[in-house]
Amino acid sequence: MANVQIIGGGPAGLMAAYSASLAGHTVTLFEKNTQLGKKLQLTGHGRCNITNACTKEEFFTHIVHNARFLYSSFAQFSNQDLLAFLKANGCPTIQEENGRVFPSTNSAVDVILCFIEVLKKQNVTIKTNEPCLSIQVENQKVKGITTPNGFYPSDGVIVTTGGMSFPTTGSTGDGYQFAKDFGLTIQPCLPGLVSIHSKDVIDLAGLSLEKVQIQVKQGKKVLYKETGPILFTHQGLSGPTILNASNFLIKKDCKSLQIDFVPSKSLEECNQLLLKALQKHPNKTVQHSLEDLLPKRFVQYLLVRVAIDAKQKCNTITKEKRLELCQLLKACPFSIDGYGDFHEAMVTVGGISVKEIDPKTMASKKIPNLKFAGEVLDLDGQTGGYNLQIAWSTGYVAGATI
Ligand SMILES: Cc1cc2nc3c(=O)[nH]c(=O)nc-3n(C[C@H](O)[C@H](O)[C@H](O)COP(=O)(O)OP(=O)(O)OC[C@H]3O[C@@H](n4cnc5c(N)ncnc54)[C@H](O)[C@@H]3O)c2cc1C
Question: What is the pTM of this model?
Fold first, then answer.
């Protein structure tokens, strides 16, 4: 039986505390806030999109960076294992569209209460309001940790301090500093699941479109493609499709993207559609006619971009201008001038290099009784419950194999 210290009382730390205690160890969980799971409380707008009920194969397609690293931990503790755990411990769940799973009470707080109850039964000592200040290592072995209350000797430490997203919740990058102290590599940390700033978005704030396709190309090669809803903001673009794309785009430092506003139609079909709309009322203004097809503000925007006067009569639009408009609808370029910052970010892109971590145990290859789990690692997923599942799976494995 080992004396195990877990640093950070978010989802990864709560799950690691559970599995380590289940394995028979004496476990102490340290959380620097006065309460556990401050970020977890905010998830899913307070409802907690706790995981996604998709298949294993689909799960990995929603992991943006280092999906392969997760194969072993997901096999050891999957989304289905999580659902069984929650059910067995009095926190039943409901599944909604696109496989998203929530606690059936729709309350993230209930997930935290469930863990508090479970950890109490497992005799885990919980120390809130007690930050870990440093980890002591001698001869490639962890000896203990130091908090403002003193030194705690340890046989094994699991670092679950989260990343740098939403720092007001306590995730201020402490784990990276611990890892750096022992020579571990940190991949550059960037805000993930954030909006995109673009000077090409003008006067469209608040407009949302249900189904567009965003694409990033390098020459003719398509680097990224996703279809779904977007939202225009004062600064640029947001909405689920943009947030999901941001993890990929920010890491690749992409400077522009294209949006296909009519992904269900080919360029020619789009041309025919416009032709029909313009021919229907030849003496009406072009603005008026196109409003039958597209939202008013969006028509105004498009016409400005192709330099067509909104008051021009339909029958005066040349074939060339119509084709220009079509091309804009099918592949409208937007510059990427920046991203939302860590205060807005839902996850961190980057973190402790997974090359230096054993994927079967989450142990550091350099210091085997020092483990890392959750967002502190260089792992990130799209929206839909995937990021919490990363925390549950890696946290479980770190605790179970200590
Ligand atoms: C607004 C918002 C909504 C989100 N919604 C969803 C969602 O619905 N579904 C989903 O899958 N993902 C969601 N996410 C992402 C998800 O919350 C994270 O992926 C997840 O919380 C990461 O878990 P973690 O345990 O690794 O880190 P965290 O949740 O960040 O927990 C780390 C904990 O460690 C503590 N800590 C830090 N340093 C120290 C120290 N030195 N000593 C002691 N304690 C320390 C922190 O206070 C914190 O409590 C959302 C994120 C945000 C910001």
Answer: 0.96
